[in-house]
Automatic annotation (TrEMBL):
The lineage of its organism: Bacteria, Bacillati, Bacillota, Tissierellia, Tissierellales. [4Fe-4S] cluster 1 binds at C39, C43, C46. It catalyses: glycyl-[protein] + reduced [flavodoxin] + S-adenosyl-L-methionine = glycin-2-yl radical-[protein] + semiquinone [flavodoxin] + 5'-deoxyadenosine + L-methionine + H(+). [4Fe-4S] cluster 2 binds at C65, C68, C71, C105. Catalyzes activation of the choline trimethylamine-lyase CutC under anaerobic conditions by generation of an organic free radical on a glycine residue, via an homolytic cleavage of S-adenosyl-L-methionine (SAM). This is Choline trimethylamine-lyase activating enzyme. Residues 25-310 form the Radical SAM core domain.
Length: 316
């Protein structure tokens, strides 16, 4: 189908790990959310550990596996093996996504995460729900992982969506090259842009990277007319103090009255992704419960409102 883009762009692939339809949390209206695989950050509370690495990965549901060993001989890379009658997965070998193990397992205990989809195919998926977007003011949101990591594919997808008349949003950690960001922003109607912590040392400790690039990119977008909604994942005892919330409001103060600054979304900590760590042989890095009470959330909302910034609570 000619969508007004060069064939090479439509033939390009994006590596994704999920598509979520009828999403109402990540941008206005009803949206289709496409999750790109791979992320340069390692946030300790990440609820999508299967989106961190760009590689294809084996997810093993241990409670479904009966240790029959049927997946072992079919794997051309010897990734599956038996150890004293227990099925294990070698994590240091690159999976080539042949899916032979998935097919061999009669228990449905294996899922290979990571799918390379042509931009054309993704646009077809997005187009299925055009009526919902029209009725609700919704559209496409690309998240991850970190979608700007696959910048060329991202641009092709966003540009195609625009040609189809579909509104676009991206969720980003903001840790990306400014020149890439300048090209991407031409095709983005709304940035959902994370601020996780203003203190650079604490930011590095929590996410693995410094926040200088992130904050400079955010300033660039705000000062150059891109529509931005800031998102703050908040964990009790980690980044929820009045001082920390005030530091974010102070950073955003110069943009308070900018038409393109759309306010702040609070994303309270949750533990929905914890079970996936075990399926990937990863250890969940946070010990303890960092959930916020209703009172904590009310306080945070009122601190932001006091600074004259529009605030919204998003419960995923
Ligand atoms: S998808 Fe193929 S290479 Fe990857 S683990 Fe399964 S059988 Fe091995
Ligand atoms: S084939 Fe399925 S049930 Fe059998 S060992 Fe492999 S993952 Fe477990």
């Amino acid at each position: 189908m000619d969508r007004g883009l060069k064939e090479a762009q439509l033939e390009r692939s994006a590596r994704i790990f999920n598509v979520q339809k009828y999403n109402v949390h990540d941008g206005p209206g009803v949206r289709t959310l496409i999750f790109f695989k791979g992320c340069p950050l390692r946030c300790k509370w990440c609820s999508n550990p299967e989106g961190l690495r760009y590689d294809h990965q084996v997810m093993l549901k241990r409670n479904a596996c009966i240790n029959c060993g049927a997946c072992v001989p079919v794997c051309p890379k010897n990734i599956h093996y038996m150890d004293n009658g227990e099925h294990k997965v070698r994590r240091d070998i690159k999976c080539i996504n042949c899916k032979k193990c998935e097919k061999a397992c009669l228990q449905n205990a294996i899922e290979i995460v990571g799918e390379d989809k042509k931009i054309n195919e993704l646009v077809d998926i997005v187009n299925e729900d055009k009526d919902f977007y029209r009725m609700s003011g919704g559209g496409l949101t690309v998240g991850g992982g970190e979608c700007t990591n696959q910048a060329e594919s991202l641009i092709s997808l966003l540009e195609s969506a625009h040609i189809e008349g579909v509104n676009t949003a991206i969720e980003t950690c903001g840790y990306t090259d400014i020149e890439k960001l300048k090209k991407i922003r031409e095709h983005v109607d709304l940035f959902l842009f994370d601020i996780k912590q203003m203190d650079p040392v604490k930011h590095k400790e929590l996410t693995g990277v410094n926040n200088e690039v992130i904050l400079n990119n955010l300033k660039y977008l705000l000062e150059n007319g891109s529509k931005v909604r800031v998102r703050m994942p908040i964990l009790k005892g980690v980044n929820d103090s009045h001082e920390e919330i005030k530091a974010v409001s102070d950073f955003l103060e110069p943009y308070r009255f900018f038409k393109n600054f759309d306010g702040i979304d609070i994303l309270p900590y949750h533990r929905y992704g914890v079970g996936k760590y075990d399926q990937l042989d990863m250890v969940y890095p946070m010990e303890g419960d960092f959930s916020l009470s209703e009172e904590d959330l009310d306080n945070i909302e009122s601190w932001i409102k006091e600074e004259g910034i529009n605030v919204n609570l998003v419960r995923h």
